[in-house]
TrEMBL record:
It comes from Sphingopyxis panaciterrulae. GO terms for molecular function: DNA-binding transcription factor activity; metal ion binding; metallopeptidase activity. Keywords: Hydrolase, Metal-binding, Metalloprotease, Protease, Zinc. This is DNA repair protein RadC. It comes from the Bacteria. Residues 14-137 form the MPN domain. GO terms for biological process: proteolysis.
């Protein structure tokens, strides 16, 4: 499955915000028990040249090894790179070490004419684009997004709680699948699809038909038939991607999204 996802990335222009890239990184790194640093090497057209693991261990050690990263970038004749590392804790917020290491590497990259396009932090359920988000964060032990608002909105708090609980539920389901295997015995592909869709819609991220088939962890043909059944039942709805007419997006219907919000606001299963 991972090899197929990696092959798909080689056929498109790499965008750090692309949901396919995010899903690939979550699938390949989200459940790792230790921190690892990977680098995606890109050509001037942002096509993927190589995807390599360059370090294991805390990002606090990263300043020791910039030569490894940029030596490989120069060997690949890469015009830009994307740094990727995982947070086994499940918290995607960048640490002070993450930010300082990224700044140091950006300085080295500018000197060598190799752009650091993004630094993506990966957990079991989500990704965080550090460079894109750094203008909206502030230091306080960890760097966390902050928003100015006079009074908290209870509806927003319920939405956030439901999203967190859904993410916890999905993380546990992925762990169960990894530990027990046998998806034909323990899998619930329809429910996995609904939970994943709820999480993505809560984040405002679209989910394609092909990505949803991967979530189901069953043969693609079976997953597509299941999606059609869910659409026929009024649980899901399909639409064409406004930016790519060849791509189908899948959403929860408003009624089902509302019910799942109420369900996950009560707990994480």
């Amino acid at each position: 499955m991972l090899e197929g996802m990696r092959s798909d990335l080689r056929t498109v222009r790499i965008d750090p915000r692309n949901p396919h890239l995010c899903r690939y990184l979550i699938a390949s790194m989200g459940s790792l028990p230790e921190e690892r640093l990977r680098v995606l090497f890109l050509d001037p057209a942002r096509s993927l040249i190589a995807d390599e693991e360059v370090q294991r261990g805390s990002l606090a050690q990263l300043a020791i090894y910039p030569r490894t990263i940029f030596r490989r970038a120069l060997e690949h004749n890469a015009a830009s790179i994307i740094l990727v590392h995982n947070h086994p804790s499940g918290d995607p917020a960048p640490s002070a070490e993450d930010l300082s290491a990224t700044r140091r590497l950006e300085e080295v990259g500018r000197a060598l004419d190799v752009e650091i396009l993004e630094h993506i932090i990966v957990t079991g359920t989500r990704t965080y684009n550090l460079i894109e988000g750094s203008a909206q964060v502030r230091p306080r032990g960890k760097f966390l997004p902050f928003f100015l608002r006079s009074h908290p909105d209870p509806a927003d708090e319920t939405d956030a709680l439901a999203q967190r609980n859904a993410e916890t539920a999905m993380r546990r389901r992925i762990l169960r699948r990894q530990l027990l295997g046998n998806p034909e015995l323990f899998g619930e592909p329809a429910w996995d699809m609904l939970v994943d869709l709820f999480i993505h819609q809560s984040r405002g991220q679209p989910l394609s038909m092909s990505a949803l088939c991967i979530t189901a962890a069953i043969p693609t043909s079976s997953a597509m038939k299941l999606i059609q059944r869910l659409c026929d039942a009024g649980i899901l709805e399909r639409s064409l991607d406004a930016h790519d007419g060849r791509r189908s997006l899948v959403n929860l219907t408003p009624t089902i999204a509302h019910r799942l919000r109420a369900y996950f606001a009560e707990g994480a299963e």
